[in-house]
Amino acid sequence: MITLADQLLVLVLLINFVSLGTSRLMFSIRAVAAQGVILGILPGLIHPFSWHLVAITVVIIAVKGFVIPMMLGRAVRSAEIKREVEPFLGYVPTLLLGAVFTALSFGFAGRLPMLPEHQNYMFVPASIATLMTGFLVLTTRRKAISQVIGYLVLDNGIFIFGLLLTEAMPIMVEAGALLDLLVGTFVMGIVINQISREFSSMDTSLLTSLKEE
Amino acid sequence: MYAALIILPLIGAAVTWLIPFDRLRPKVLSLFTFAHLAVTIQMLTTTPPESPGGWFHLDALGKIVLLSTSVLFLLCALYSIGYLFYRRERSNRVLCSGLLVCLAAASMVTITHHLGLMWVALETTTISMAPLIYFNRNARSIEATWKYLLICSVGVALALIGLYFLAYATIVARVEPSLLLDDLMRDAAKLSSGWVHAAFVFLLIGFGTKMGLAPLHTWKPDAYGEAPGLVGALLSGGLVNLAFLALLRVYQLSLATKEILFFQNALVVMGLVSMIVAAVFMARQADFKRMLAYSSVEHVGIMAVALGLGGRAIFGALFHILANGLSKGVMFLSSGNIHRSYNSKSTDHVRGALRRLPWSGGLFLAGFIAITGSPPFAPFISEFTIVSSAFMQGRMVIGALFLVSLMVIFIGMALTVLPMVMGEVPAESETTSYRDTIYTVGPPLVLLLLVLLLGVWIPAPLMTLLNEGAALLGGHQ
Description:
The complex is a heterodimer of chains A (213) and B (477). Chain A is mostly helical and 213 residues long.
């Protein structure tokens, strides 16, 4: 089953590049939703079956794959904005940077000691690469919604690492972290609505009235 | 006992949410924060035993932060009775229940020894404060809320990956996998240094962002500048201390590993950079609430430097948690009154506050004298302890930079504060319905008296608490 997990992680990495390369916001949201669904399947592949596990899978897929993307989709529709325009850094440079970061994260993961049973799998490099991708989206895009997407990708990266830690992380803490993510995205969605009402756009580069001269 | 600290404010949040009257809500808020302080004092005097499994354990560090947070919340709640009377044009439902949710999460941060749970609670405080910064519902406050929410959420997320690295280090070392502080400290020597080093970098960046250490402080002037005065007081006097407590936990852990020197040096550098950034931006600041935000950047810098120095300075850092938290309360609450009265927070419009609002203007002036570290107020004691410790350890450059920054900040802040409170009220100044009342002046006055009291006399139980806390962090006399 682990090889299937690895193949799914490759898919996660490919989705990272989709979110880096596309300008269409709805498409980007769907890509992150797909990533969320894959992350929901992963725990089922690396742990033995239990009803407990089924519940976790269902909750993760529901939250990361459906609820959060729906909230973001609503924000996009009500703001009537379809595309990210003029990011701070173009799509080709960010894609290239994304590739560099992905390569670097494989190098970084190779230098850290790992359990022999994790040695040959991609959890750690995939996690760090996804984290970096999220960071890249966050810092290079103008639209508030793209920045939330970046935050979600970053969080997905952290989640992948968490898959290695089931013994150390009690379920209550994991659930708390997921709830924080859900409420946080919900509040961000509300703020985005207010931004688009106040500025008639979601462009965060218009948010400059508080700059120091 | 532990549960009461969390459940009480949560019940309060539900009750204030359900109450349909804006006038009644702040009073209910005060009632619940008062009950919270009562439980806090009960817990400080009769230390409850560690909970089974070791998840909840109120140690000296947690006690110090819990006490300062609970006192500040109560006084801010009392202040809100007077303040919200002047803001009747909008509903205060979200504000009142948000404060209580934040108080519940804040208490959780102080009592838990499980780093994962502490992280969840810390992130909850971030989210619950976001709608409160947006209280004024205008373009500037939405911008501030967005920056605050995004930067702090990303920062705290980076701290989570740091915690994950720590947990993975325990798995690699084949010790009991855990994120309990006590387990981690016991096994710290066996953990692989690569993972631990990476973990400390992420934890420092993450909690440093939440605390507002330069260069991760960019959200701070905006959020503090646009939030209502009482929210600013809680952000700068309450939430900052919670993030500092998280850093103290990491510090406790780093003491048990070989990473302590790296961690201490990083703290000193970030702390000094914060103080210098504050000194540069404090001068000629045209908005007095943003000035207070830079003062907050300065004071988290002071705490970071003190922690990095170690030794006797640790005592100073712990005392500064109380001294800074309470003084910031005085400054933000009285500045909120001045803002209401002049309907402006620009230093061009606000002149002669002492004449127009003798109480609030006087408190603002006294708060300025306290926060810049003048005797006989409490921040003087902590700052003097820290700087003398730096020189005693022979770290002359750090001590000198520290003193020069304090001096420049004193001058920069005086150039803003003195014209505000002295002189004549400009003739064209807007007249508003705001008048100083017992509810808007009483809470900052009580805070100021506390700051003064701590400056001249530290009660013996508090002294014991501070010494116990310093001992936990390896800071000897």
